[in-house]
Amino acid sequence: MTSDRLSLVFGALADPTRRAILVRLTEGDATVAELAAPFVMSQPAISRHLKVLENAGLISRTRRATARLSHLEAEPLREVTTWLTRYQRFWDESHERLDELLAALQGKGGRGTVARTEGDDHG
Amino acid sequence: MTSDRLSLVFGALADPTRRAILVRLTEGDATVAELAAPFVMSQPAISRHLKVLENAGLISRTRRATARLSHLEAEPLREVTTWLTRYQRFWDESHERLDELLAALQGKGGRGTVARTEGDDHG
């Protein structure tokens, strides 16, 4: 995946509506009207989001009778996930650091006591 | 991770310079001057990119003497990777479909059409 393609895919994912559209498409292909239904958003606005997703290779579109169906194309998501896994050792490290910190705090006289700050509910 | 946080992280990753900065930081903490060195870009321009990365939680910054050091924070990358893995079965499927298509093409010697089953809605 080229650098520009990665930028297009990450840019397409940087919007909650577009991510929701992808989630919806995991259930099956859908028309613009079906995709627009859950949103307080016009069909032209949804169409613009679909254009961004299509441009990033995240959906393909086919015509069936008078409707255009959007179809999820997951391959670019595999590619960005591969890109991200190179950082895995760093997030593992930060978890280890956190574990060490917690162990140190619990070991040093704090006895790991967890104070309940919320009051009891029983009457 | 909230929807807005996901958007911030994906947005921060949607730029090749910012991704290159993260790659550089996997080698260790660095000053703005060190981060700017490989780029034909001013230090203020790099600082603006660092601000975006910091805002997305992807780096933290500490002061050492007169220099500000940037440090990779990989945790948000773990979180977006978790979000992406929900699509794994779809890219696995598309690989399987591709394998089937290739097998069909190789087996049937140039019969270029693959029948696509489209569901009929009865009722």
From TrEMBL, chains A, B:
One family from Pfam that matches here is HTH_5
HTH arsR-type domain ranges (all copies): 1-92
Give the superkingdom in one word.
Bacteria
Entry-linked InterPro entries: ArsR-like_HTH, HTH_ArsR_DNA-bd_dom, WH-like_DNA-bd_sf, WH_DNA-bd_sf
* Listed GO MF terms: DNA-binding transcription factor activity
- This chain's protein is named ArsR family transcriptional regulator
Q: Which organism is this entry from?
A: Actinoallomurus bryophytorum
